[in-house]
Specification:
alpha/beta, Rossmann fold
């Protein structure tokens, strides 16, 4: 670890490389899983789907000390209107990176092809109500979003658990920057997302954010005003949230 700091309640750890960052996050997530298994027979985890999560997901899959068969898996957002087999689909990303590699007790997916996104959001909300979240593994978008809670739709007091949203252009352009789509025109304009309170209710939040493209978002998250203008700032109010950065994403922090 290069540096660690505490901002309000948010612990921030900075590592030299993405791999070191991902391995450290995976170790802490495994420790939290083991602690929870001392209290209950099964736990519920929500995963983010993005290239920024590749390192932590890889290191989680490398571990042989986690009883995946006692974990119910969820994901935090999904495009509306993508074909079920589209590689850009977040469900498909997580199936490829972890859901198909480990024997989860259940894998619960948001349906990108649902004809009624409101009804699909309500269906997924009921699943989440039945499986109160223990751990969230998340990232931060270039505009400061968590899940698809872009600044213009984020609500720290949202009454809904899951909702359809319109994506802002910065968020959509990020999908091009990440190499997920060839052009902005190909990126869907709408998605379903877990809301901020849904994720904030988890016992543990592990936020993994590498790359220079996220440096502004990391700075705003750690040093800016806590508000929906940068939704990730809410992490600073959680009693057990940790932010993992590499040297690139942390390059603008005043440390």
């Amino acid at each position: 670890m290069v540096k660690s700091l505490l901002k309000d309640k948010l612990a921030v750890e900075i590592y030299e490389t993405r791999d070191e960052m991902g391995k450290a996050a995976a170790e802490d997530i495994a420790d939290a899983i083991h602690a929870l298994f001392q209290e209950k027979d099964e736990i519920n985890m929500i995963f983010a789907a993005a290239p920024s999560q590749n390192d932590v997901l890889f290191h989680l899959c490398e571990r042989d000390d986690i009883a995946w068969e006692r974990i119910n898996a969820f994901h935090m957002d999904e495009y509306i209107g993508l074909p079920k087999a589209a590689p850009q689909g977040f469900a498909n990303f997580l199936i490829d990176k972890i859901f198909s590699k480990k024997p989860f007790k259940s894998v619960n997916l948001i349906d990108s092809t649902a004809q009624d996104p409101d009804a699909e959001s309500k269906r997924y909300s009921k699943l989440l109500q039945q499986h109160p979240t223990d751990i969230v593994v998340l990232g931060i978008g270039e505009n400061g979003h968590i899940a698809f809670n872009d600044p213009h739709v984020a609500d720290f007091n949202d009454a809904k658990m899951v909702k359809p949203v319109e994506l802002d252009e910065t968020c959509r352009q990020q999908q091009v920057n990440d190499g997920c789509f060839a052009s902005l025109e190909q990126v869907p304009k709408y998605a379903m997302t877990l809301t901020v309170p849904t994720m904030f209710a988890a016992k543990y939040l592990f936020c993994v954010v590498p790359c220079t493209t996220k440096a502004n978002a990391v700075r705003n998250t750690v040093e800016g005003e806590i508000s929906e203008k940068c939704p990730a700032t809410i992490l600073r109010k959680h009693s057990a949230a940790k932010l993992y950065c590499d040297s690139d994403s942390a390059s603008l922090l005043e440390i």
